[in-house]
Specification:
Blueprint: H1 2-17, E1 49-52, E2 54-60, H2 82-91, E3 120-126, E4 129-134, E5 137-142, E6 150-156, E7 161-167, E8 170-175, E9 200-205, E10 213-219, E11 226-231, E12 238-244, E13 275-280, E14 288-291, E15 311-312, E16 319-320, E17 328-332, E18 337-342, E19 345-350, E20 358-363, E21 371-376, E22 382-387, E23 408-414, E24 417-424, E25 441-444, E26 451-455, E27 461-465, E28 473-480, E29 493-499, E30 502-507, E31 511-517, H3 525-532, E32 538-539, H4 553-566, H5 574-583, H6 586-600, H7 605-618
Antiparallel strand pairs: 1-28, 2-31, 3-4, 3-32, 4-5, 5-6, 7-8, 8-9, 9-10, 11-12, 12-13, 13-14, 15-16, 17-18, 18-19, 19-20, 21-22, 22-23, 23-24, 25-26, 26-27, 27-28, 29-30, 30-31
């Protein structure tokens, strides 16, 4: 064996790395093959299922108290009038309409349409615990065996939107609806102005995971649609929360200092800002708002309404929402950046000082209705923005819909500016009874590639490769048929995230899904092995940390598979290289590394980076 490995470590490896004339890059499956996602049977518990490269391992329906027995799938969406449909189709606005500046809080305890009152929302992870947000509270699951998730406890605390994040023994929850109460009561708040109403960010102590206790409730003018935890390496005693409110501002009678007026009438308006909440980790009850930065301001004029003013971009374009809010902000403290999906614009922020984020760049897009969320790649050189055309409640993946509307937009970050590269949209058309549009996702940590698993509501889950920013491709998918064959009911996947080797899906109506990526010609077992070797102690998707890969043969073999797929290493010679990597000792691997480094110098783009990384990696394996 030693003689064989030595043989492979020199001339044979050189031969394996020599690409013959006419070598072709691997191609994706033929686009003429019918997509199995088309025509799936409808049903809540027994729908048709189509999958490629993903397998469903477990499903737990929502527990009692988190669904309406009269409408287990959720209430059907209200029928739109012809005028409403014309207006929505014409403006394609992804945001819910912003009420007039002087609007009072809605009076009913239950909103006029309660279709989302029991919907599952976002996910957070800590150790072997999974936290599933819901418009009526949150649920905590034990995922020590991901194939058998077990419900630990449920906390009923209505108020929407229910997005959750976890930091140590603290859980944070977004509340925006006017029915939210300080005491988490289910009766709602009838009065237009009430000391009992809560809209903002709740903080729970989860030291005892089975009995969470609310220890703080930070009131905000516009409530909290979403929030982002921001850590400061220089100040571990505190954590910051960026609160993003997208609703109307409450009256000053209910919360002093609140105003929803146009900035020309009131420069102190709660519009055109975010909330920065500072939380002492050891004393969360002292959490308070410390800043409301004007991150949309025009630097030259000082106008706080300095970005997109709302409206379309010309004939045949989207009507894009006014930028007076952020829907979601994703931070990457290791590179000092944040990406904000801010209704009418995508923005890039400097967060060196977490309490005072500064805008570096902003972009608009004639194809975007509502900038919804953002995801960096692993080294912070790219960002994927999503467009929630139709607000997540409309069927926006029809065969007749434009593929650049309700899609992802991929940007490279160059010299701290955003440079557009391409769009990606779910490639399988959905039906008129399936709400579908780009929604929440996270990176899949495969070395050498930028992969993102993503929820598309009733469009299911899709895995996108955006390693080549200008040419993103789908590599895997999982989809169920619609909840109902005749009525549109808002449902499907709110979020789909990778965590420690599995994909967890928050299904708005059907509960919690646990899935696993499976090997294919577009994602090999070696690549999956490398991804599964990465473990995290906690994960909040809006707070990204760089993933590092420990030197291992599994990671090396993942790089080889990628080089074979691209054609940089001929497939018929790859087994020689893999055999040498799998069996070689440190000296032999170092010899192979030298040969690979020489080959890397003659390549460009991702293949050059992969081969260089492989060369460096082989010198570290012991």
């Amino acid at each position: 064996m030693t003689r064989l490995v030595r043989f492979l470590a020199a001339p044979a490896v050189v031969a394996a790395l020599a690409v013959p004339a006419g070598a072709q890059t691997a191609t994706t499956p033929s686009t003429t093959t019918p997509d199995p996602r088309v025509g799936l049977k409808a049903g809540i518990r027994d729908p048709g299922v189509a999958a490629r490269g993903i397998a469903l391992l477990a499903n737990l329906p929502k527990p009692d108290g988190f669904f309406d027995p009269k409408y287990p799938a959720g209430e059907p969406n209200p029928q739109m009038t012809a005028a409403e449909k014309k207006e929505e189709d014409g403006d394609a606005s992804g945001a819910k309409p912003t009420p007039p500046a002087d609007a009072k809080p809605a009076t009913p305890a239950r909103p006029p349409w309660g279709g989302l009152n029991f919907a599952n929302s976002d996910l957070a992870f800590s150790g072997n615990h999974l936290f599933v947000g819901n418009f009526s509270g949150f649920n905590i699951y034990d995922i020590s065996d991901p194939t058998k998730p077990a419900l630990l406890t449920s906390v009923v605390c209505p108020g929407g939107q229910g997005d959750v994040s976890v930091h140590g023994s603290l859980l944070f929850m977004s509340v925006e609806q006017t029915r939210g109460r300080l005491d988490c009561g289910v009766a709602g708040v009838e009065d237009p102005v009430s000391k009992d109403r809560f809209r903002g960010v709740r903080i729970f102590d989860i030291t005892d995971i089975r009995t969470p206790k609310q220890v703080a409730a930070v009131q905000t003018c516009r409530g909290s649609h979403t929030h982002t935890l921001v850590t400061d390496p220089k100040d571990p005693a505190h954590i910051y929360v960026y609160g993003s409110g997208t609703s109307s501002a409450r009256s000053a009678e209910e919360l002093a200092g609140c105003s929803g007026k146009d900035p020309k009438e009131d420069p102190q308006t709660a519009l055109f800002s975010i909330d920065v909440i500072k939380v002492p980790v050891a004393r969360p009850q002292e959490a308070k708002i410390v800043a409301r930065p004007r991150i949309f301001a025009d630097e030259k004029t000082g106008n706080i309404a300095g970005l997109w003013a709302g409206g379309d971009h010309g004939p045949g374009t989207q009507k894009t929402s006014v930028t007076n809010q952020c829907h979601d902000i994703t931070v990457f403290p290791a590179v000092g950046l944040a990406a904000g999906a801010c209704s009418g614009n995508g923005i890039l922020l400097d967060i060196a000082d977490p309490a005072n984020p500064k805008r570096l760049d902003s972009v608009g897009d004639k194809n975007f209705a509502y900038w919804h969320s953002a995801t960096f790649n692993n080294d912070g050189t790219k960002v994927v923005f999503t467009d929630e055309w139709g607000g997540g409640m409309r069927p926006r993946c029809l065969a007749t819909d434009q593929p650049t509307w309700g899609a992802n937009a991929i940007f490279d970050i160059v010299d701290r500016t955003l440079q557009f590269k391409s769009y990606f949209k779910l490639p399988a058309p959905q039906t008129a009874t399936e709400n579908c549009v780009a929604h929440n996702g996270s990176l899949v940590p495969v070395p050498g590639r930028d992969l993102m698993v993503q929820a598309w509501y009733q469009g299911g889950i899709s895995v996108m490769d955006f390693t080549d920013s200008a040419n993103p491709k789908e590599v895997a998918f999982f989809d169920r048929g619609p909840l109902d064959a005749e009525k549109l009911i808002t449902g499907g996947y709110w979020s789909a995230y990778w965590y420690n080797g599995h994909v967890f899906g928050s299904e708005m109506s059907r509960g919690l899904d646990v899935l696993a990526l499976t090997p294919s010609d577009l994602l090999t077992q070696n690549e999956l092995n490398a991804a599964k070797a990465v473990t995290a102690t906690a994960f909040n998707v809006q707070h990204q940390d760089p993933v590092t890969f420990a030197p291992s043969r599994a990671v090396a073999l993942a790089y080889v598979d990628q080089l074979v797929r691209s054609g940089a290493v001929p497939a018929d010679r790859s087994e020689l290289l893999k055999g040498a990597i799998g069996a070689g000792d440190a000296a032999q691997l170092s010899m192979i590394a030298t040969r690979i480094g020489e080959r890397a110098a003659s390549l460009a783009g991702p293949d050059a980076a992969r081969m260089k990384a492989l060369s460096q990696l082989l010198t570290s394996i012991r």
